[in-house]
Amino acid sequence: xxxxxxxxxxxxxxxxxxxxxxxxxxxxxxxxxxxxxxxxxxxxxxxxxxxxxxxxxxxxxxxxxxxxxxxxxxxxxxxxxxxxxxxxxxxxxxxxxxxxxxxxxxxxxxxxxxxxxxxxxxxxxxxxxxxxxxxxxxxxxxxxxxxxxxxxxxxxxxxxxxxxxxxxxxxxxxxxxxxxxxxxxxxxxxxxxxxxxxxxxxxxxxxxxxxxxxxxxxxxxxxxxxxxxxxxxxxxxxxxxxxxxxxxxxxxxxxxxxxxxxxxxxxxxxxxxxxxxxxxxxxxxxxxxxxxxxxxxxxxxxxxxxxxxxxxxxxxxxxxxxxxxxxxxxxxxxxxxxxxxxxxxxxxxxxxxxxxxxxxxxxxxxxxxxxxxxxxxxxxxxxxxxxxxxxxxxxxxxxxxxxxxxxxxxxxxxxxxxxxxxxxxxxxxxxxxxxxxxxxxxxxxxxxxxxxxxxxxxxxxxxxxxxxxxxxxxxxxxxxxxxxxxxxxxxxxxxxxxxxxxxxxxxxxxxxxxxxxxxxxxxxxxxxxxxxxxxxxxxxxxxxxxxxxxxxxxxxxxxxxxxxxxxxxxxxxxxxxxxxxxxxxxxxxxxxxxxxxxxxxxxxxxxxxxxxxxxxxxxxxxxxxxxxxxxxxxxxxxxxxxxxxxxxxxxxxxxxxxxxxxxxxxxxxxxxxxxxxxxxxxxxxxxxxxxxxxxxxxxxxxxxxxxxxxxxxxxxxxxxxxxxxxxxxxxxxxxxxxxxxxxxxxxxxxxxxxxxxxxxxxxxxxxxxxxxxxxxxxxxxxxxxxxxxxxxxxxxxxxxxxxxxxxxxxxxxxxxxxxxxxxxxxxxxxxxxxxxxxxxxxxxxxxxxxxxxxxxxxxxxxxxxxxxxxxxxxxxxxxxxxxxxxxxxxxxxxxxxxxxxxxxxxxxxxxxxxxx
Length: 916
Known about the structure:
The protein is of the alpha+beta class. Helix content is 32%, strand content 14%.
């Protein structure tokens, strides 16, 4: 046989995703995973993704990656206007959340995408606490000393009153909303503001050509923001969530429960002081971002050139703390407005008027606790896009099918009453004291719990106590949120805090990484294994990290639950520097379309088209699977005594009678019936391991491939040529070829259920190369690399077309197909080959599901996700959770099995769930 040329290989693998992990540059951390179609130019192929699109602009803060939201209920004219306002160039720090939140919502409910799967091993949640900042108020002597040194140094920060900070933030807000004029006057104006009011001027000339340049100012700001032991490092997930607590929380009423290490601040003065330093950090970050935007726009317009040496210096000097401060500045300038009013008389503190009433908070001159008696300007901070955020909350409730049908009107009424009826010059009091708090300090937990060593965990456990006027709601409604997982917690907390009926039935104590039962439905965070498993059921709904299901735990009424689960041994070992993502060469080598072959000597006989329904010994029986119950065994502990790494977020005060949140082991039981014999058997699977599920990336079959049936073809040896099981000459084979480097074994789900004790290694080792490999090209190893769990064969509710393994033949030019013909050749004509489903004309099956993913259909991904799901899919996920197997979910007609096997190689995983 003739070898395949480079052009022929590209045509053969047209529409096949390829998997990468590449560094973005120096000082950018772990490599960035990506999926690309390097040999395709069509947008219908290049735009294919394995994750859903963010549906609402109110949720846009979830990621720092550039993206476009899909506002299905929004005002198109408003969206166009908003897009036009942001048309100018912006500076984007090369530092983003991990895992990538764009990839956290896989096309399969309860799953993630390829990028997020690789980044779980280097997730931001794996970081240890920031030294000196593991409390809300009190700071260590090292932090206090560094701040004093910065204020007394002549090459650092000037002392600023709070009113001056807020005045400058007002000025930055106006400047940010305007186009940046590229004039020398702007640099001089910014220079004077910075070095006469905020920083001390440099002690030496940094740029002899232009001592007042933006680069000089940027360098000075970076130096101050990069100072150690000075600022809150928002690269830590914990502080991204606590941000709102520093701005809107009240030390007498609030408490935070971090059972691993945190201790309480001592007084309100310490909290007030920390809020002051946070405002300075926000101001410095805004000053830096305004200058970076200006210089970026100048580069874009061609009126300014940035030397590569300055770029390299910035990337080196700008620490993760600096870059995350820039994310904070962007969130502030985009969403927060500082308003100044004149107070003419002393006003008493009024009672709170509603759950949104404390969205605006009085900030007056100085840090005195009695500043409300001062006659002078009063400053308030408020959200710029309250209506947008409230609409996003309504959208979230509808997507999760929240039981309260009138929820949307309640939100709108509350929002209207606040925006129309709360005067900005009226100081708002803290939440009323309550007599139902379980703890009397900021941080709960005993000393013995505090000594528990925090083990690396890719998913934090976050508990919270809710309050109608709490800072969790204010954080969401104001829009002041940083990229990462926090948005899912804010959404659910705000949803509950604005539903009095839900609060009354569920209680104020919540586990935002667990689940709860309410009104005959269960709601689960996707951080919980139960949520990721139940999401596979028909009728479940998923939105922004939460899953709703009609399946409720057996015998459990309304209330919150926590699930006992342990991380798999493999995942626990492969974190941080040992994570798979750092093995860039292995990721790409073990997923190459040509396997380990030399590109100059690739033979057609080196490939097969893999299928899941080929068995050596017997035909799998037709079975019926029905979910019987979700069971929670006896609670192992309660949230108050379990030494976990809980980060509680609670505006409560003392002595509450809130119900405890118990921690349960969870299991799912199923009734499996063999349809022919009628034999029934019950299976119960413990959801014991914190496994992950990944949506296999969609692919598009190449339009340049012919299908050949010939005894001389190496792959035809797997097919019965007598005609049984073959639809005929026009059989539709949808899939890409797989190189012999990849070995796999397919096991029907019924076979796994029939086994007792077995390991994944045993299943992979029980592999015969003759059953899957042609004799002309024997596999180099006798063990399979990947286990394919067949959840298709025997489960079709409607007759399906048979798909048979056949050899791919290129249809263009003097390919090996035209030069190696034999008398037995029977091939599909060019016209028949082009009649296969195309990316732009995907056909549908009898049940209404689409055959292929495409750019034009991708916009309806959320609707399509709800069409899938069955008890079979719940069972196989529960099975993997018991065994501790991370698994890819490959859906027939969305992606071929060959591409899923290669993606498993990229991830270093060994299990693929193949569903219909």
